[in-house]
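USER: For my understanding, would you kindly supply a protein sequence with its structure tokens?

ASSISTANT:
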Amino acid sequence: RYTSVTGVQTCALPIYDAPGSDGTRGPAQPPLTTTAKAGELTGRLPQARRQAAVEGVSKVVDGWFDAAFTEPSYPHQGFADAFPGFTAGARRAAEQDVDQLTSAAVAEDITGLTATRRTVTVDLLATRGVARTATARIRFDYVTTGDEEVTRSVRGRLLLTHGEDGWTVFGYDVVQGRLKGTPRPPGSPSASPSLSASGSDS
């Protein structure tokens, strides 16, 4: 599932074409991948350990992307399992922010969700040659099908710490909204934020 390469890590999820009119399935599209890269480094950290930290953080972020957005079958209710890799306290907070951290805002009115962008930039704080904490600057864009056909973007930061069990999320600062320039579905709240289609991962 996870392929380690120098500088960038990708996490692939296969996507298949819908069956044709004759019932056969078309050729598979290129797999959707999460692109991860190293960001700022505070302190000193050997390159191999820096790369390992980027991969470890990216694996946690990708688990959240999957559980909160791409893995549920739609229409969908309930996101109790949407936060793997979160500490107990962060999970409790996230459950109060499901409209920002999952597809909950549209999940009951859609029949499908397809990710169109998955990126993470990992900033690290290291002491004595060991990565201690990380800030994962994320962006996740997706389109939906069904009664609620929208294009939305999830952006912000996950805050992680490293312990005996590896990297875990202890905090977050994330916003989700409709991408600017995309149609607003009938009946959707006008207060829903609109996000620019361009810009960085944060």
Q: What stands out?
A: The beta strands are 2-4, 8-15, 29-42, 110-127, 130-146, 151-163, 166-179, 194-195.
